[in-house]
From TrEMBL:
<feature type="domain" description="Lipid/polyisoprenoid-binding YceI-like">
    <location>
        <begin position="29"/>
        <end position="198"/>
    </location>
</feature>
<keyword id="KW-0732">Signal</keyword>
<dbReference type="InterPro" id="IPR036761">
    <property type="entry name" value="TTHA0802/YceI-like_sf"/>
</dbReference>
<dbReference type="Pfam" id="PF04264">
    <property type="entry name" value="YceI"/>
</dbReference>
<protein>
    <submittedName>
        <fullName>Polyisoprenoid-binding protein</fullName>
    </submittedName>
</protein>
<feature type="signal peptide">
    <location>
        <begin position="1"/>
        <end position="25"/>
    </location>
</feature>
<dbReference type="InterPro" id="IPR007372">
    <property type="entry name" value="Lipid/polyisoprenoid-bd_YceI"/>
</dbReference>
Length: 205
């Protein structure tokens, strides 16, 4: 169950027709603004409620080309031990998620999403397809992605070029050998990513 959405996260593939060719003639390096990024998975629990899990420890390579999206690179690695959050008083639940019923983090401490394809018709909405690896099992997933805004932050916030994306998708956790308690706890897991990606300047590199 993960995503990323990153995430989302990430659909550098979204073209920005209003941006100049000079500014985006080739892929540019972006990074997660983690204070403005949420990557979560949710599912139904015994029919009573919808529960969520947040992924908090992640990083990756985000090379975004807004004019030729097929040249973009999105490769995100999630560190699972210590990188799962499900609300207050969640220690027992997180311990269960780390066990062999779910992520089996003792043997597979990381999950990884590598984008393999991008598609958009209007430069603002589209899809990102990629390979998601959990527990050593790799499956293809597709996220619906929307480019919310691509512009510099206000000068009071540093003026850094920022791209904001929303991404959603669904997966069946049993595809990654995590079928514990299905169907009482839903097999289908919804992925939701909200992220802001900031341009890495030459001075920062």
């Amino acid at each position: 169950m993960k995503f990323a959405y990153a995430a989302a996260s990430l659909a550098a593939f979204l073209m920005a027709p209003t941006m100049s060719t000079a500014a985006f003639a080739e892929p540019a390096e972006y990074e997660f603004d983690k204070s403005h990024t949420t990557i979560r998975a949710s599912w139904t629990h015994l029919g009573y409620s919808r529960q969520s899990l947040h992924f908090t420890d992640y990083d990756g390579v985000l090379m975004l080309d807004f004019e030729e999206p097929e040249n973009s690179t999105v490769d995100v690695t999630f560190t699972l031990p210590g990188g799962l959050w499900a609300g207050g008083d969640h220690e027992r639940f997180i311990e269960h998620l780390n066990s062999g019923d779910f992520f089996l983090t003792e043997e597979h401490p990381e999950a990884r999403f590598v984008a393999t394809g991008f598609a958009t018709e209007d430069g603002e909405t589209g899809t990102m397809t990629g390979d998601l690896t959990i527990r050593g099992v790799t499956n293809e997933v597709t996220l619906d992605v929307e480019l919310n805004k691509h512009a510099p932050k206000p000068e009071s916030m540093g003026g850094t070029m920022t791209a904001g994306f929303s991404a959603t998708g669904t997966v069946n956790r049993s595809d990654w050998d995590m079928g514990y308690a299905v169907p009482a706890v839903s097999d289908e897991v919804e992925i939701v990513i909200e992220t802001e990606l900031t341009l890495v300047s030459d001075e920062d590199a």
